[in-house]
Design goal:
Elements: E1 8-14, H1 22-38, E2 43-49, H2 52-58, E3 61-63, H3 69-76, H4 92-104, E4 107-114, H5 116-132, E5 137-142, H6 158-178, E6 182-187, H7 194-197, E7 223-225, H8 233-247, E8 250-255, H9 266-270, H10 289-301, E9 312-316, H11 329-347, E10 352-358, E11 379-383, H12 385-388, E12 400-401, E13 405-406, H13 408-418
Parallel strand pairs: 1-2, 1-4, 4-5, 5-10, 6-8, 6-9, 7-8
Antiparallel strand pairs: 2-3, 10-11, 12-13
Helix pairs in contact: 1-3, 1-11, 2-4, 4-5
Length: 427
């Protein structure tokens, strides 16, 4: 429900893992506020929280009120969180400290850029402000490379990370056919497989989505494993053996969050005494344990009696996926517009909400060189904080193909987001 505007200070924070475009969203919020609330005289200062709500509770701010547009533009094109980020997951007592800090600094507009836990922080702080009679409006701006926010077609940060994954797997596959062997790449995605699925864009011979073209890929990764599909070690071995027997090589993409049939994360089970974050999650991306275990298992099981073991290697992409400085054009544009839209919501008098990116059309045809489809477009909408807060979106069934592949529908969904990919020749 929209209501009259209030006058006071604005705070903006960044939370969770940094991305290649999270600063675009930050700058977008500053611009949205500057050309709306600030121009209308409802803003005294625009303050950036240092390291999210942790800095807010300590009174650690960067004054962005009069920051020159040239500086903002350079910041927008800089990967990582310019204000610094935090993994803190505020409980009720923590949120009380957040609200106390907002009262102290006359904060009337609270913007938080992050994932589902960040939206939950917005929700809790907003509810506490209402209960205490303090007029403060709270807005969540979406961000996560995992692409796991509900109500969104996709999330800022994902297209750029997906672009990195596609290009890294493309290069890695070319390495694999030069010196054949079995290669395993472990990719981010604790509960959602979108980023691992993006490895399929490395299959250059799969780019033609004509249904009359033979479906079998000649390019890697030939096998893709997502957390939405129960992972069976024996079935995995049979898959690898089948591809390796035919080609003398095998290229594999595995999500760090793969789970067994009982929903137990295989990586977390392997990392004994692993460090956990404030959400209680074992930090999978900081360990190569899953890749090493799968590589050792394959090498052991596929070594013939008295024979030579196959050449098996594993890499864990880890944090390098998040902030690679070759972001998707679409991602840059949409991240900035998401921030601006949040500022617009505040100017319109909304009391709270989360920004969501919607896609009215299919979006793939223009990028595929077809004249018969709908060009890619996106729209922005306000959704309730409770619809996003602390919830996880998973890969839909129509995006998956069997237990070790992704569908044509996923390729159509993902291709417009990542931008042009290089084309290479094969002899």
């Amino acid at each position: 429900m929209a209501t009259n505007l209030v006058t006071g200070n604005v705070v903006i924070g960044q939370s969770g893992g940094p991305t290649a475009v999270i600063n675009q969203s930050l700058v977008g919020v500053v611009e949205g506020v500057r050309f709306g609330l600030q121009a209308a005289g409802h803003v005294k200062k625009v303050l950036g929280m240092r390291h999210g709500v942790r800095g807010l509770t300590k009174g650690e701010f960067l004054d962005l009120t009069d920051t020159h547009q040239d500086v903002l533009d350079r910041l927008a094109n800089t990967p990582s969180a310019g204000l610094g980020s935090t993994r803190d997951k505020p409980d009720k007592a923590y949120c009380e400290r957040i609200l106390d800090a907002c009262r102290k600094h006359d904060v009337r507009y609270f913007f938080y850029i992050g994932g589902n836990d960040s939206s939950d922080t917005c929700r809790i702080v907003r509810e506490m402000a209402v209960a205490s009679g303090y007029d403060m409006r709270c807005f969540h701006v979406p961000k996560t490379v995992d692409n796991d926010l509900r109500e969104n077609d996709h999330t800022p940060g994902f297209p750029s990370a997906a672009r990195f994954v596609a290009m890294a797997c493309m290069a890695d596959f070319l390495d694999n056919i030069s010196l054949p062997g079995i290669k395993i790449n472990v990719i981010m995605g604790r509960h959602a497989g979108f980023l691992t699925a993006a490895s399929a864009l490395a299959r250059r011979y799969d780019r033609n989505l004509n249904p009359n073209v033979a479906a079998e890929s000649t390019d890697g990764p030939q096998l893709i494993y997502l957390p939405e599909v129960p992972f069976d070690v024996d079935r995995f071995l049979a898959d690898v053996d089948s591809v390796y027997s035919k080609k003398g090589r095998c290229h594999i993409a595995v999500s760090e969050g793969i789970q067994d049939k009982d929903g137990v994360a295989i990586g977390a089970r392997l990392i004994k005494g692993g460090q956990t974050d404030s959400h209680g999650n074992v930090q999978l991306s900081g360990s190569g344990a899953l890749g090493d275990l799968l590589a050792d298992f394959v090498k052991e099981k596929l070594t013939p009696a008295g024979g030579k073991p196959p050449r098996v290697r594993a890499d864990t992409f880890g944090y390098i996926q998040r902030c690679w400085p070759d972001s998707s054009i679409i991602d840059r544009i949409e991240a900035r517009r998401s921030g601006r839209f949040a500022g617009t919501l505040a100017m319109q008098g909304w009391l709270d909400g989360s920004v969501a990116i919607k896609r009215p059309g299919t979006g793939s045809a223009l990028w595929m060189g077809s004249d018969n489809g709908v060009p890619y477009i996106s729209e922005y909408a306000r959704v309730e904080l409770s619809a996003v807060a602390a919830k996880t979106r998973h890969m839909p069934e129509e995006f998956m193909l069997g237990h070790n592949n992704v569908s044509k529908q996923f390729l159509e969904y993902c291709l417009p987001l990542v931008g042009d990919l290089p084309g290479f020749e094969r002899l």
